[in-house]
Write a structure and sequence with these properties.
Length: 186
């Protein structure tokens, strides 16, 4: 694990499985249908159980799905968390289609929903860097920078954990954490 302290928040970068994170809020890398999928989404629905999909279907009935960059909150079911935030990251289309802004919104909206639930800890997977093909280094930069800006703008949370699945992903994210924190926090 790699950690970094900023204001009253501890940033953690860990290699592991998102469904095993014992935090207040786990974040799902969902799609706009909210009906599940593969990768993180599949693992979360499998481990969390059917109550998650039941609540997702209620949200669909009320507001349709979840737009890219937006986030919704449901029960975490059998996961070791209080709440599950589903956010939809952008599909990478080369970088000239507003992908960086949409990914930032996905992280920011997830943090804001966690704050509304008075969460003290949140665990993010690497949103959009799997099936959605977002380059990991750029996505990692957006993830860390967005969390720091959230805190600079008055957001409060004790722990922000980034959970990477692969060895190389963990290394890249850890390197980016060092770069961003040095440039943004001096
Ligand atoms: N725990 C942590 N990280 C994981 C796990 C897991 N169990 N499974 C996969 N990952 C990693 C992947 O290696 C990738 O780096 O999470 C990152 C995000 O990958 P995806 O889950 O494919 O998410 P994303 O790229 O945002 O694509 C979302 O895929 O599963 C579907 O329904 C989902 O349509 C949506 C799309």
């Amino acid at each position: 694990m790699k950690t970094f302290q900023y204001k009253n928040t501890t940033f953690e970068v860990v290699q592991g499985n998102i469904v095993e994170q014992e935090v207040d809020v786990i974040v799902n890398a969902a799609n706009s249908s909210l009906l599940g999928g593969g990768g993180v989404d599949g693992a979360i629905h499998r481990a969390g159980g059917p109550s998650i999909l039941e609540e997702c279907k209620k949200i669909r009935a009320a507001q349709g799905g979840c737009s890219t960059g937006e986030a919704v909150v449901t029960t975490a079911g059998d996961l070791p968390a209080q709440h599950l935030v589903h956010t939809v990251g952008p599909v990478w289309r080369g970088g000239n289609d507003g992908e960086m802004v949409l990914l930032e919104r996905a992280y920011r909206n997830s943090l804001e929903l966690a704050a509304q639930k008075n969460a003290s800890s949140i665990a993010f997977p690497s949103i959009s860097t799997g099936a959605y093909r977002f380059p990991l280094d750029r996505a990692s930069y957006v993830a860390v920078r967005t969390a720091i800006l959230f805190l600079d703008e008055g957001g409060t949370i004790d722990t922000v954990r980034f959970v990477l699945f692969g060895d190389r992903d963990f290394e890249i994210f850890s390197e980016v954490l060092d770069e961003v924190t040095q440039t943004m926090t001096g």
